[in-house]
Model the fold of this input.
Amino acid sequence: MDVGTVFAESWEAFRKQFRFLALFALSLFILGSLLALLLTGSALLGLSGLSYADLAAGGGANVLSASLSAAGLAGWGLSSLLLILLAPWLAGAGAAAGILVTQKQKKVLRPWTPYAVAWANYPALFALSIVLGITLWIGYWAFVLPGIILSTLLALSSYVVIGERVTMLEALTTSWNLGIAHFSTILVTGLALVLIGWLIALTAGLVPVVGQYLLVLVSVFASVTLAVVYKHATK
Done:
């Protein structure tokens, strides 16, 4: 399995299922925008309360500012919790979309299908997100190189969960073994995807809304590419 073959097969699958993937990317973009709006709005509400306390005088103003700050902080906390709970589901949906388009499908794929597949595996995906988050944070905090190595070895974890419907520990073990066996391919593929995303961010990504949607679409293509790697690695 070489990187050229991986990208050629990924592009073919992406092209054939472009309508499905474009609609799925649009749904991810909308959900992500709503979450960002909730987080930003809550934070601004809290900050406005604090600023109002500095500028206004009188007990009534202080009570109002305290209420605004409390509401903002509570909203920010709830939004952050919602993000923590939804992130594994959305990431799993991306992996599911990649796996679905790299398999032979007799039925027409719908934009909501990846979400249903990810939801069926949510417990394992949630546990996986916590373990990966802590592990990769430690790896990148210690030194960059350990983080890159761990990211490469565990890159296929969510695909193992979706493809084989296994537990978090089984997914980590399988991904680790696959990562060791195909380390160079996964590493080079991952670096190439990061470079593509970086180039898009520097060009089309600067265009409001459209550019941001294109970045989401590129992330969906990355999911398809890693799904192709997973398919070949498990043959």
Summary: Residues 21 and 60 are 53 Å apart (CA to CA). The chain has ten helices and no strands. The first helix runs from residue 3 to 16.
